[in-house]
Amino acid sequence: MIEMQDVYKKYPNGVQAVDGINIRIKAGEFVYVVGPSGAGKSTFIKMMYREEKPTSGSIVIDGVNLSKLKESKVPLLRRNIGVVFQDFKLLPQLTVYENVAFALEVIEESPKNIKKRVMEVLDLVKLKHKARHLPNELSGGEQQRISIARSIVNKPKVMIADEPTGNLDPDTSWEIMNIFEEINEKGTTIVMATHNREIVNTIKKRVIAIENGKIARDQAEGDYGYEA
Predict the structure, then answer these.
(1) Within this chain, do residues 140 and 161 fall inside the same structural domain, yes or no?
(2) Is there a single domain that holds both residue 109 and residue 134?
(3) Which domain covers residue 33, as residue numbers?
(4) Which one-letter DSSP state was computed for residue 113?
(5) Can you give the pLDDT at residue 188?
(6) What are phi and psi of 38, to 5 degrees?
(7) Judgement on whether residues 137 and 105 belong to the same structural domain of the protein
(8) Are 94 and 22 members of one domain?
(9) Are residues 59 and 3 in contact, defined by beta-carbon separation less than 8 angstroms?
(10) How far is the C-alpha of 156 from the C-alpha of 74, rounded, in Å?
(11) Splitting the chain (228 residues) into consecutive groups of 10 residues, what average pLDDT does each group show?
(12) Tell me, what's the pLDDT at 227?
């Protein structure tokens, strides 16, 4: 599902953020990406949805070579990859329903199908009853659940999560992880960058550790492995 070959990323300021990464992630896997701050995790994650381009090497997701993808095709790529951020990125002027529906409206899905699918994913994240609320009327955990609903409404094969529990309290973080596990069980490949040691050590998944832009560890059912 995801393959990186000899991927390097050097920023104009001379920082070598990613230094020769080679990985394969199979369809349906759940992978944590861990490592110290400044290790290259964010760049690694951003390259998967073409927020950043590698300096050299190839990144292939579901058969699409991101390194050769034309800029005009990037929006289509992002419609097929669900992305969840630490800061939610909801549109404040739109209701919960409208935020989730937006992703389907841009691909001109029929109103009937939009309503059906939006209510399905709101039910999955247990917020159907908040469909008419605005984001600022929700808690941080509820906003993150809406962000997740929006990311999966197009039924993406891959979901990229960048510190999705970073702004949440521990109880809410576990609720979010339960949703991720349910999505993964339905077949979606999940790649999640996180600093949450407890989650990684409790919900055992594959762990890819990045240090100084390189893969330092790649373990099935691995541990977080860093001191707090």
Answers:
(1) no
(2) yes
(3) 1-80+157-228
(4) H
(5) 94
(6) 80, 10
(7) yes
(8) no
(9) yes
(10) 15
(11) 96 95 97 92 92 94 89 83 87 95 88 94 94 95 92 92 90 93 94 94 96 95 81
(12) 67
Contact (Cβ atoms closer than 8 angstroms) between residue 47 and residue 223: no
Q: CA angle, corner 151, sides to 50 and 66, nearest 5?
A: 20
Both 62 and 173 in one domain: the answer is yes
Dist. CA 178–CA 33, nearest whole Å: 18
Alpha helix segments (H runs only) across 72-169: 74-79, 96-105, 111-124, 140-152
189-193 β-sheet, strand order: 81-84, 158-162, 189-193, 30-34, 206-211, 214-219
Task: Confirm whether pTM is higher than 0.85.
Answer: yes
Instruction: Indicate whether 108 and 119 sit together in one domain.
Output: yes
Please list, in sequence order, all residues whose beta carbon lies within 8 angstroms of the beta carbon of residue 70, skipping any fewer than 6 positions away: none
Cα→Cα distances 67→7, 16, 131, 223, Å: 10, 18, 38, 31
Number of domains in the chain: 2
What is the C-alpha to C-alpha distance for residues 131 and 118, in angstroms, rounded to an integer? 9
